[in-house]
Design brief:
There is one protein chain. About 55% of the residues lie in helices and about 0% in strands. It is mostly helical and about 70 residues long. The longest helix is centred in the middle third of the chain and has 25 residues.
Length: about 70
């Protein structure tokens, strides 16, 4: 008995699996894209630039004991 390609796809369950995999891939891509956008420095995002000239930790402080 010959099956059409659509019957084969339904028999294998691919009519359900393919959309689920595509939805998961799209969700992963969306979250990774949002993470990259939100974690960029302000200078790349177009936000306010840093106002301090040399940075808050320059010159470096001497080492201190931890106890």
């Amino acid at each position: 008995m010959d099956r059409s390609w659509l019957e084969t796809v339904r028999l294998l369950g691919l009519d359900v699996v393919v959309p689920v995999v595509l939805a998961l891939a799209a969700a992963h891509w969306g979250t990774s894209f949002a993470h990259k956008v939100l974690t960029r420095p302000d200078s790349e995002r177009g936000g306010p630039a840093s106002t301090d000239e040399g940075g808050a930790n320059w010159p470096p402080l001497p080492w201190r004991t931890s106890h």
